[in-house]
C-alpha cells in the first residue's frame, strides 16, 4: 500500500469514527442527563475513541511499502 493510500485510509476511518461518535454522543447526552454524562460517559468515550485512533494508525503504518 502506497503512502497516499495509507493516508487516505486513515482519513476515511477517522471521518467515520468522528461522525458516528457525534451521533452516539448526542443520543447518550439526551438519555442520561448532563451530570452523569460529563462524569462517566464522556471520559469513557474519550478513552475508547483515542484507543481506536491509535489502533487504526498502527494498523495503517505497520504495512510496508509495496
Structure notes:
This protein has about 70 residues and is mainly α. The chain has a domain at about 35-65. The chain is built from two helices and no strands. The chain has helices spanning about 5-30, 35-60. α1 packs antiparallel against α2. It is elongated and about 45 Å long. The chain starts with a helix and ends with a helix. The model has no long low-confidence stretch (mean pLDDT about 75).
User: Which regions are unreliable across 5 or more consecutive residues at pLDDT < 50?
Assistant: none
* CA radius of gyration: 15 Å
How helix-rich are the residues, as a percent range?
over 70%
Number of strands: 0
The coarse silhouette is elongated
Kindly estimate the percentage of residues that lie in beta strands according to DSSP: under 5%
Keywords: Membrane, Transmembrane, Transmembrane helix
Transmembrane segments: 12-31, 37-58
Amino acid at each position: 500500500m502506497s503512502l497516499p493510500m495509507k493516508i487516505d485510509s486513515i482519513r476515511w476511518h477517522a471521518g467515520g469514527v468522528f461522525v458516528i461518535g457525534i451521533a452516539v454522543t448526542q443520543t447518550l447526552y439526551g438519555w442520561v442527563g448532563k451530570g452523569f454524562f460529563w462524569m462517566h460517559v464522556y471520559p469513557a468515550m474519550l478513552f475508547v475513541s483515542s484507543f481506536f485512533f491509535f489502533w487504526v494508525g498502527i494498523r495503517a503504518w505497520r504495512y510496508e511499502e509495496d
